[in-house]
Structure formats: structure tokens, C-alpha cells
Write a sequence for this structure.
């Protein structure tokens, strides 16, 4: 009889571990929480004008892709400033497991891009918060390249997550590095990579249009996404701050069919 005890203990431990891991990762689904509902409502408050950047709606992820990626709420836009610089924005929300997976290193690879692994993976973005104080956050960044017979396309991406009002960029796998909050936003900012022939004193990361847009976009997001005001429709946003931007021509961007959460 005693010889079956180790087997029973092993079966119990495996079962218990599977249940805990499944609940932690939402493997068997997770009912949409009130916090996710609130995150979805706040997406509608993200303004179309940010400083001197004007936004237009673009085609988002289709229903099937949203279901697979676990996207509960989504905005897809392109913002363009007076100098012709354009930045594509993908902002989605959902539970922790779904928002920590389907990241650019996998999604863009599936769309035919290769990721440049050279250089720093984390970039610091500094901006003024709603109180006029200087704040800074880390965003993951990488260059992605796609080649075909007619052209070579290079884009620069910045991405980060937010659950409690502070943007985060885990240095490790986000499935392990993100704290266990029930709802998360995930943000992608994408712009044409600055050609190497134009580098000179230009830094391809901090001088990227996407990085400069982040300087004015993040404080606006902090205010509208994490406002405690119940009357979302009347949330007022001061988006008049403008970054110091150098002249850089806009390149047309080809966008993978996958979005921030796909």
C-alpha cells in the first residue's frame, strides 16, 4: 500500500500546480472584470489632437484576431505633425496573460519582419506630468526590417505596459516580469527608422518621431486612462505641450496585420 503513496503525492502536486498555473495564466478563460470595462471606456477619451500632432483612425485588428489575442479594447491611429512626421499608435487592453503575450518579436516576425538585436533594448522617455513635474519611463524598443523585391522597409517600435498609472517595460519575458494585476494596457508606437545615411549627430532612438511623440502622448494617456472621474465623457485633457522636434521627412509605413495584442 505504501508504495502508492509517492505516486498519489506526485499526482496531487501535478494537479495542484496545473490548476494554479492555469488560473494564473487564464488558460481556461477569465470573466471580464470591472477594471477591464473601465479600461475600455477610457480608451474613447484619448484625443485625436496631441500638441501639433493630428490623429486619424486606421484599420484595427479584425474580430477573429482580437479574439485570439484576447483584446478587449483597442484604438488604432496614425498621428502626423506639421513637419510631416508620422507615428502609428496601437493601444489595446485586456487581462494580464493576453497582454503579456503576442509581442512584436513574435508578431512582426510572423508578418515577415526581422528584428535587429543590436543596441539597447530599453529607452528612457522623459516628459512633464500633469503637475508640471519631470517624469520618466522605460519603453522597450527595437528596429524591424522587411525586404522584398521592390523595397526594404525599416521601422522603429517602442512598446510598454500600464496597469496602475505607470508605464513598465520588463527587462525579461513580460509573462514573468509584469506584476499580477487583473487588467493591463499595452501600447505600441511605430515610425519609419531614420536612415543610417542621416545619422550624423542624430540618435536613431531618441530622435525617432515615435520617441518624440511619446514625450507628449504619455502624459495625455496618464491623465485620460487613469482618471478617477466617473463622467468619462467630460474628461478634459490639456494636450498643448509640444516637444522640440527636428526636421525629418515622413516615410510611408507598411503595417503588419497584427496589432499590439496580436
Amino acid at each position: 500500500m505504501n508504495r502508492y503513496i509517492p505516486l498519489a503525492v506526485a499526482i496531487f502536486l501535478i494537479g495542484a500546480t496545473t490548476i494554479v498555473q492555469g488560473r494564473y495564466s487564464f488558460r481556461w478563460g477569465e470573466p471580464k472584470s470591472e477594471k477591464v470595462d473601465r479600461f475600455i471606456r477610457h480608451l474613447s477619451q484619448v484625443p485625436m489632437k496631441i500638441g501639433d500632432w493630428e490623429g486619424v483612425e486606421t484599420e484595427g485588428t479584425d474580430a477573429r484576431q482580437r479574439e485570439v489575442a484576447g483584446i478587449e479594447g483597442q484604438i488604432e491611429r496614425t498621428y502626423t505633425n506639421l513637419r510631416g512626421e508620422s507615428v502609428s499608435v496601437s493601444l489595446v487592453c485586456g487581462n494580464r496573460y493576453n497582454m503579456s503575450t503576442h509581442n512584436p518579436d513574435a508578431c512582426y516576425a510572423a508578418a515577415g519582419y526581422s528584428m535587429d538585436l543590436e543596441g539597447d533594448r530599453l529607452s528612457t522617455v522623459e516628459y512633464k506630468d500633469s503637475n508640471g513635474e519631470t517624469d520618466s519611463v522605460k519603453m522597450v524598443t527595437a528596429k524591424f526590417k522587411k525586404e522584398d523585391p521592390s523595397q526594404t522597409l525599416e521601422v522603429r517600435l517602442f512598446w510598454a505596459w500600464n496597469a496602475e498609472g505607470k508605464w513598465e517595460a520588463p527587462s525579461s519575458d513580460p509573462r514573468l516580469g509584469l506584476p499580477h494585476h487583473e487588467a493591463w494596457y499595452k501600447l505600441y508606437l511605430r515610425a519609419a527608422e531614420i536612415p543610417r545615411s542621416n545619422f550624423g549627430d542624430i540618435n536613431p532612438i531618441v530622435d525617432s518621431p515615435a520617441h518624440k511623440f511619446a514625450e507628449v502622448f504619455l502624459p495625455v494617456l496618464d491623465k485620460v486612462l487613469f482618471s478617477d472621474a466617473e463622467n468619462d465623457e467630460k474628461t478634459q485633457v490639456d494636450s498643448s505641450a509640444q516637444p522640440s522636434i527636428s526636421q525629418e521627412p515622413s516615410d510611408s509605413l507598411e503595417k503588419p496585420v497584427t496589432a499590439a495584442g496580436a
